[in-house]
Amino acid sequence: MGNPGRSNNPEMNRLPFRTRSLLARLLNVSDSSRVAFGHNATHMINLGIRGLVRQGDRIITTSMEHNAVSRPLRYLEKLGIIELVILPCSTTGLLDSEDLRHALKQQKTAMVIVNHASNVTGTVNDLTAIGSIVRDYDAYFMVDCAQTVGAFPIDVEKDCIDVLAGPGHKSLLGPTGTGFLYVSHRTNPEPLIFGGTGTRSGLDYQPDEMPDCYESGTQNFHGLAGLEAALQYIHSRGIAAITQRKKELCTWVLDGFKNIPGLILYGKTTPENRSPVFSVGKKDVDIADIANALLDDYGIITRTGLHCAPWAHQTAGSYPMGTVRLSPGLFHTREDIDMMIEAVDSVFRKMK
Amino acid sequence: MNRPEHVVLLMQSVHQHMVLEEILDRLKIRYRTVVKPRQLGSDCGMAMRIDTADLDRIRQICEHEKLLVFGVFFLVDNRWEPYLG
Questions:
Q1: pLDDT at A5
Q2: Residues A117 and A206 in one domain
Q3: Distance between CA atoms of residues B50 and B7, nearest Å
Q4: Can you give the residue range of the structural domain that contains A139?
Q5: Residue of B33, B43, B46 lying closest to A200 (CB–CB)
Q6: Residues forming a β-bridge with A59
Q7: Does residue A213 sit in the same domain as residue A315?
């Protein structure tokens, strides 16, 4: 690829532009310059939060957030910069929009930050409803869409989203090391990283233009090339068809899990507004034993523990042990799911 | 002064340059993306060489698409001068 990014090869500008345009189209962003790329969702969430909060701001978030959101917020709270309000969600992970309205009524709030779906329970929040309430109170609406972008429809206009951060490597099907941030024309976060952008090089100061102002340093062009191909696939298959497939996966797994003795499922037991991540456990059984048996006997890779989301496990009732999380993807078939259910059934019956 | 055959456009940002490229590709208007001449700034940026005959149409496109043209230049006696035509 030559000298990445800063060489005289115009393709190194065209590649991120094409990827940006494809992503903007997926999110109904009319001006693709409002989409910036970075290393991952955590990087982009930090940019959104650190770039927007000001001394004395009141920030509302939920009890289902990932550490990518909770840790920067807790840090700013500890420094005395923000007042943090954490709204408790239901045990399935759903935010009650009336709780949000009540919290917004109490005091002027600078920003509301929620995830679109929980990485622990898979519960998908109604962004349109939440965004509309947040806009009523003139706060910024920031969404962590790590679990949903590429799998569920997101419309930044309809959902009144001001800041949206996500990874390239999950449901967008791109490589790791890619993430993005959308910022609306209402917002202009301060950059997190300053330096060479390949533009306005004679200036001592960071350029103001989007997306250059957030893309200092050499970009992950190989990653963006992979993400471009992934986005082309998503557009060709269609987000509605992908969402439908995710619902089918949920239906198959939830039906299968119903009959497994002793299986505790954290999260919704119905497939509507649910992403296919399934956090499970069994009373008095170490989740590591379950995960080891699934891997050793069936080659099924799971993730155990708190999934970088201790607040969510506290809300769901699975803290401090955590859960075993199974997360089938878009390319798994009905046969794969049947095999997984048989494996889980067999392992759970053996675990006393 | 005779009208130059080509002029060079400088856009406000690389992103806007890319947007313009996409539009010109679609409309089959000829252009060439070139390294920004050093005399026109110390940026590591790019410039767009177009046929002068297409300049008015491209300006209209930029206005319609809210793309900011930073400057239009032409080469005379090995010096880049603003093109006011």
A1: 59
A2: yes
A3: 6
A4: 11-237
A5: B43
A6: A84, A111
A7: no
Which residue among B42, B43, B46 places its CB closest to the CB of A13?
Answer: B46
Task: Tell me, yes or no, whether A17 and A133 share the same domain.
Answer: yes
> Which of B13, B33, B46 is closest, CB to CB, to A209?
B13
Instruction: Write down all domains in chain B, each with its CATH number in brackets.
Output: 6-79 (3.30.70)
Contact residues, chain B, for A33 at CB < 8 Å: 13, 15-16, 19
**Do A204 and A168 fall into the same domain?**
yes
- Cα A74 to Cα A79: distance, rounded to the nearest angstrom: 9
Mean pLDDT score of chain A: 96
**Which stretch of DSSP H or E encloses residue B56?**
helix B55-64
- Please report the ipTM that was assigned to this predicted complex: 0.85
**For A218-270, how does the pLDDT look when each residue is reduced to its tens digit (9 = 90+)?**
999 999 999 999 999 999 999 999 999 999 999 999 999 999 999 999 999 99
Substitution target from B11, B14, B46, B66 for chain A, most A beta carbons within 10 A: B14
- pLDDT for position A314: 97
The domain that contains A201 carries what CATH number? 3.40.640.10
Domain boundary among A194, A219, A237: A237
Domain count, chain A: 2
Q: Name the domain boundary from A183, A212, A237.
A: A237
If asked whether residues A28 and A153 sit together in one domain, one would say yes
The answer as to whether A262 is a domain residue is yes
Type of residue numbered A203: L
CB-based contacts of A296: which residues, under 8 Å, 6+ apart?
Answer: none
Kindly state the average pLDDT of the residues A177-188.
97
pLDDT tens, residue by residue, A27-61: 999 999 999 999 999 999 999 999 999 999 999 99
Question: How far is the C-alpha of A211 from the C-alpha of B15, rounded, in Å?
Answer: 8
* Cβ–Cβ below 8 Å for A13 and B17: yes
Q: How far is B2 from chain A (nearest CA, A)?
A: 31
- Which positions ≥6 away from A185 have C-beta within 8 Å? A31, A34
